[in-house]
């Protein structure tokens, strides 16, 4: 199994079960000092498969009786392709490519006919696509998706998701500097992670033109020309789920060869100018840029010198495209735990300013106000950069915890776009509760003022006033106040919904 086990690695080891019957020895249970060693053994046990000397030897996690029964039931299900356990949780891959975790008997009950009806319903949903663009901010348009790695890398391919009549609730995208994809795919952790996504963008794959790499239920986009690559470092691989691949259109780069310098930004900028100006595409630029940007602005600051040079009067010293940030309720100030700035970072910031793109790190989702580190737990070099119109279509953004089984030093970047006929106007990305969830707040529109007032429920307002009139001071406590506040919130939310604010 290529796993080195020392005596000190084992906490306890003994046989379990009743006295053996003829020809059937009792099972052996082993407790390891390190969880990582356990994972390594579980990952490499497939090496024993097919070897005659280990024909009747099986390595499994120690499960409770209930979970063992559930595991056997899931194995027999028609919609299940494969099953494995990790940390006592039952993970199953469905035949439609999705993954389901069975954690308790209730999950199994709802899956008696389909291993959870919600998953089977995705067979219909996944035939569609998801995209965002268009001046009216609807979601049935174009999404230019770049996966780029700036240093020792190649220029990125682009993806345009075509229009489709079907509907999908959201599309999940993963970006990860995998630090050598062939080695990482030998462990189940990476494939398990990828099963939760629709598009997976790998950087630093370290592949050459002779390497063949496959990922179950995904199709690999055509690779770049690596003939001028001096070594196997760098490399990009973009996998798209089979269920949406039919709706993918490749947007070819002006440079199809490997680039290993800061010149990569020039290529990206030239391509995006074409996509944005000529085709009105909205952009999601994602990957490892090897760029340190600190908290420097990714928008243009109009200082006094620039205003005087352009003969502008009474212009606030803000970003010239600050209106795009304000329009969509994006936090102007970007947080980052990495305060360093280098040449690559300045070039990346210049690209953002030139094309009116904004860095999502430190502004959105669970990373709002944080700017979590993405490499070696010391720096931020993996980014997601968006057109401002796309910010309101992001329902989740976060930096994944570091996992040495899927990357040597990098964290994954997770972003999920929601499919809706109208954007969530005014997402306040700096409003995050203790669980890391973004609070969506409507942005006020004076043109809808009268509609909002008309939709306020007078009866409910009178009921609140009556409660206040009969309320005794000595009976006031925290729960009473919370209930009254919630009643007010309901009135306001219902009026906002009816008026088109939400």
From TrEMBL:
Gene3D superfamilies in alphabetical order: Endonuclease/exonuclease/phosphatase
SUPFAM superfamilies named in the record: DNase I-like
Residue ranges occupied by any Endonuclease/exonuclease/phosphatase domain in the UniProt entry: 174-291
Domain of life: Eukaryota
InterPro entries for the chain: Endo/exonu/phosph_ase_sf (IPR036691), Endo/exonuclease/phosphatase (IPR005135)
GO MF entry, a single one: catalytic activity
Protein name: Endonuclease/exonuclease/phosphatase domain-containing protein
Organism listed in the record: Mytilus coruscus (Sea mussel)
């Amino acid at each position: 199994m290529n796993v080195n086990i020392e005596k000190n690695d084992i906490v306890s080891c003994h046989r379990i079960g009743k006295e053996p019957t003829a020809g059937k020895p009792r099972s052996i249970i082993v407790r390891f000092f390190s969880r990582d060693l356990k994972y390594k053994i579980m990952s490499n046990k497939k090496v024993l498969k097919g070897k005659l000397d280990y024909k009747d030897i099986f390595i499994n996690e120690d499960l409770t009786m209930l979970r063992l029964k559930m595991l056997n039931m899931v194995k027999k299900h028609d919609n299940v392709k494969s099953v494995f356990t990790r940390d006592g949780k039952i993970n199953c891959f469905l035949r439609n490519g999705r993954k389901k975790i069975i954690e308790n008997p209730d999950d199994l009950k709802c899956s008696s006919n389909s291993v959870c009806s919600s998953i089977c319903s995705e067979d219909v949903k996944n035939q569609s696509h998801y995209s965002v663009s268009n001046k009216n901010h609807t979601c049935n348009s174009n999404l230019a998706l770049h996966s780029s790695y700036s240093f020792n890398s190649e220029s990125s391919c682009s993806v345009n998701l075509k229009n489709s009549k079907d509907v999908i609730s959201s599309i999940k995208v993963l970006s990860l500097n995998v630090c050598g994809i062939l080695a990482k795919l030998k462990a189940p952790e990476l494939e398990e992670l990828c099963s939760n996504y629709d598009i997976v963008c790998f950087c630093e794959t370290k592949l050459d033109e002779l390497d063949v790499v496959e990922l179950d239920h995904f199709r690999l986009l055509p690779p770049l020309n690596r003939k001028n690559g001096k070594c196997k470092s760098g490399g990009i691989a973009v996998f798209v789920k089979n269920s949406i691949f039919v709706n993918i259109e490749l947007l070819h780069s002006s440079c199809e060869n490997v680039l290993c310098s800061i010149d990569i930004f020039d290529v990206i900028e030239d391509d995006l100018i074409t996509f944005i100006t000529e085709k009105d595409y909205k952009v999601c630029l994602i990957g490892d840029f090897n760029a340190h940007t600190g908290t420097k602005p990714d928008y243009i600051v109009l200082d006094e010198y620039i205003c005087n040079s352009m003969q502008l009067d009474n212009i606030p010293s803000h970003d010239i495209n600050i209106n795009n940030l304000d329009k969509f309720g994006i936090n102007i100030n970007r947080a980052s735990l990495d305060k360093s700035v280098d040449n690559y970072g300045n070039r990346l910031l210049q690209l953002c300013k030139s094309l009116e793109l904004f860095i999502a790190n430190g502004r959105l989702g669970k990373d709002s106000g944080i700017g979590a580190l993405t490499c070696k737990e010391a720096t931020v070099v993996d980014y997601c950069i968006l057109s401002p119109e796309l910010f309101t279509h992001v329902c989740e953004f976060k930096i994944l915890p570091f996992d040495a089984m899927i990357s040597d030093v990098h964290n994954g970047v997770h972003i999920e776009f929601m499919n809706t006929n109208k954007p969530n106007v005014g997402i306040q990305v700096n409003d995050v509760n203790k669980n890391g969830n973004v609070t969506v707040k409507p942005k006020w529109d004076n043109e809808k003022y009268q509609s909002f007032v008309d939709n306020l429920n007078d009866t409910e307002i009178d009921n609140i006033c009556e409660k206040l009139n009969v309320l005794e001071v000595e009976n006031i406590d925290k729960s009473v106040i919370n209930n009254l506040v919630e009643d007010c919130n309901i009135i306001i939310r219902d009026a906002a919904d009816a008026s088109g604010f939400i």
